[in-house]
Amino acid sequence: MATLENHYRDLFDIEFTIERNKLWMLQTRVGKRTAGAAFRIATQLVDQGLIDIDEAVARVTGDQLAQLMFPRFDAGEDAKQIAKGMNASPGAAVGKAVFDSDRAEEMANNGEAVILVRRETNPDDLNGMIAAQGILTSRGGKTSHAAVVARGMGKTCVCGAEEIDVDLKGRKFTARGGAVVEEGDVISIDGTSGVVYLGEVPVQPSEVVEYFEGKIDATSDNASDLVKAVHRVMERADEKRILRVRANSDTPEDSERARRFGAEGIGLCRTEHMFLGERRQFVEDLILAEGDAEREAALQALLPLQREDFVGIFTAMDGLPVTVRLIDPPLHEFLPDLTELTSAIAVKEATGEPVDEHDRVLLAAVQRMHEQNPMLGLRGVRLGLVIPGLFDLQVRAIAEAAAQVKAAGLNPRPEIMVPLVGAVQELEIVRDETLAILADVKAETGQDVPTLIGTMIEVPRAAVTAGQIAEAAEFFSFGTNDLTQMGWGFSRDDVEAAFFSRYLELGIFGVSPFESLDQEGVGRLVRIATEEGRKTRPDLHIGVCGEHGGDPDSIHFFAEVGLDYVSCSPFRVPVARLEAGRAAMAGVGSDSR
Amino acid sequence: MATLENHYRDLFDIEFTIERNKLWMLQTRVGKRTAGAAFRIATQLVDQGLIDIDEAVARVTGDQLAQLMFPRFDAGEDAKQIAKGMNASPGAAVGKAVFDSDRAEEMANNGEAVILVRRETNPDDLNGMIAAQGILTSRGGKTSHAAVVARGMGKTCVCGAEEIDVDLKGRKFTARGGAVVEEGDVISIDGTSGVVYLGEVPVQPSEVVEYFEGKIDATSDNASDLVKAVHRVMERADEKRILRVRANSDTPEDSERARRFGAEGIGLCRTEHMFLGERRQFVEDLILAEGDAEREAALQALLPLQREDFVGIFTAMDGLPVTVRLIDPPLHEFLPDLTELTSAIAVKEATGEPVDEHDRVLLAAVQRMHEQNPMLGLRGVRLGLVIPGLFDLQVRAIAEAAAQVKAAGLNPRPEIMVPLVGAVQELEIVRDETLAILADVKAETGQDVPTLIGTMIEVPRAAVTAGQIAEAAEFFSFGTNDLTQMGWGFSRDDVEAAFFSRYLELGIFGVSPFESLDQEGVGRLVRIATEEGRKTRPDLHIGVCGEHGGDPDSIHFFAEVGLDYVSCSPFRVPVARLEAGRAAMAGVGSDSR
Asked: What is the ipTM of this complex?
């Protein structure tokens, strides 16, 4: 056995038999292993001198690392496993079994944690899937509706657990061993292993996450073999990788975590939340403003609040770049829902109840701003060009915050990113206004904060005219979510639940293009924009801030195309660091397997 | 003067003076002329031997021809011209002046023809603009909101008529000459000349249209000089052009007109209307069907009706190709509006009125099928892949109709076009099902009708993967409306009224990309798809069926890229024929000026 493993330089499954006292080796193949074992084995082989550290890095994957970062069930001897299905979407979820989506929603609204149990799901189950902690089905594989939608939501899912017999009318399921689970009984489902437990299994935090958080020192003797192995692999991946890794983060707390996880900047700081909560009133004032004075007052009220938001983020990211995206969603998202408001007013009128005059004014505004296709409407840079002072408010808040942080002795590195640009002319206008405000704030504060101005590339037209757009942009950041939506002509919210499962069954795509970048189609737009953008401006800084920035296969593609960085959610930063390292070692054409 | 005109071979404005009995020529320039004069002068110059017929064709434009095809006011001596503004959107409109958009909508709903009069319009006026026969504003130029939106709607508009003083509160306007028009007073506006008349001016049909309709014989002595000139120019343009011209038509009547106007086929026969009217019930049955039998019954009920539709169209287009687009819009468009139905049921519930059970079932279906962004949802080929039997019904109706028409001794030439394809796999599946049905119908009827199968190229991903898609497509037809919408990431319904005027003012585009193809961005996608589609399949037949197929500048672009045909509305067919001829003579890089 040692001979074989030494020859193949890996852990091997070896089949043997002993016949009449003679040992026969029957066959051998690379041994299967858990994610944790993969890391431990790889580094042990290094210690044994069988492989070098680069090969160890090549032998583990970002997907394995991601698995190690989910909380795990601490399933001791008492844990009662009642079934096993497919590990469709990772994580550990505990809740009361519910067999109907409306009921799931109702119970969740009452603050109860529920697991939605169905034979299979369909688009009608969407509300229940949103409400549940996790989803368990008895039918369907990894491309079933439940699996596809759960992964899209980042929700734990076990599917195709054929050992359970779901009785929807009786609101219960029976496991092969005879265990019966009725509505309200607590179950625990493990989306990483596919195991279903009866009752509540305690959840244990991931030690790998604790290591990234800095709570475990990988160099101390107390560190586990797993943590030590992960540490060694990550160190080497960081040394080798060319692609930088940033995080998508909107708050100081997330930014700090991203930094602990190794992020080298913020690649996408959304600003929508800076208009929400108690500030929603100011947005309403802005929309309903009659005349410049009222509009200006609403904007002025927001300025100090948003400045403080940015101070927090720039402070957390001292010395590292922070790409701030100016407001993107249509303003009516900050107003009440058309159908609800129309219905509420109609009911009041029908029953003779007085209707608040403000509600009528609001309804008129909601009707006026209603859009057939909000994703393709008045949003992004269009808002900035149509609503006087809106982008100016944000730019001033950024500039003043940066000046304040710099005056406090830190090193803020803001980058202002204009969303949804389709034509260079849009960007030129915003850039010129932005430069004027930056100059004003510099004069007012005496602080000189170098600030880049760039744009998202998320509209197909921007990709095919990138050579022009680069004339006005110091950086590009691919918004691959929107680029996928507009490139394919489908909106994720509408299509993932409606027909993605069918498309995967039919083989139209092998994996959802929202999970892993569609390299042939959307990827071609990324290639065109990168090549032509750099032709115009050789030092153009290019990254990606869609969710694909944290997907292993996509990362290899971005490395191959020659982007400067990927940006992903803080929890995916280690995955991206590892895959960026693997991509650098494997060279062009590598993938994440 | 003859010397000058002979030298320049054109009609010239010549300024002269006589001083002390001596004639001084001061300056000269190409003389301005009306659209009709342009045609007459061009052919007269041919008759005088100053230019040849090709140059005559080059000297007139499709825009001029289009102007000649609108009905004109027969403004005799009695017609009282009270103002003149800019000719923002052509046509002749008569109606009662109204100064408020809600009031315009109200009056129009009562069956009255109205002209909306405003100082300038804004997005709040959309309902009034839709309701009105025409729009008159006292401010703003050809890129003003009123002008842009009216052109988008194909509605007559005179803008920037500064001679009138609009008093919105007083619901009247005063013309410079003192004429006062109050709400309800009839006015006539000429969008071709910009002239505003008091009272109702009789409208005269276009003699050029009557010529194309075959009601005037251009070779008879009775024909006017204009008709003779148009005839000569069109004959030459037809001889020279390489680009074929088809029409977009959904009915036998429109198809017959298109044929009279010179269409060489139908490039886009939409099939949505074949599910409307009394047939809407079957669509509702299809959506609410429980089980295969109910769904199949709904589809079977539609089959004979749709077959008859196609028989009519194939008969009208005997011997010419008819490209039928399978159903494209989302099915919820055939159901009631979510907000209205929700509100109606809520009101009934609140007032204790009984709610029809069917309405509840319908509301549940409407809610289930509601989409955030219907343009980016379950439509086109996706419907065909998700709803069993839907495309099959349509293909069978087409095939049976073609067999029936062929059996009657005619020559039907159907082409089946799959909408919204983004990936070759989608098309392959539909193609295989279609081929099976065509074979079945051939076996059943004994009629062999050659039928092409192809696809729209309207999703950006389809354009950049056209090399693959051409493996499964016998033809491409660019749906440049959707390609513009998805390429730019904006939906026409939402953005034209909301911010296009602002974008034109800011110079972000010089002309709406829905009026004239955005050659740099969307046009690049057209180029890529054409080149790479032909690389895969050299005999790939390629056309365009978006509205750009009737736009002069766009036609020159399509000619240059090497498309086989353009398809446009029947009324634009002569314009397209003319511009296609001009493009062929001018060669590459020509434009429509």
From this structure: 0.90
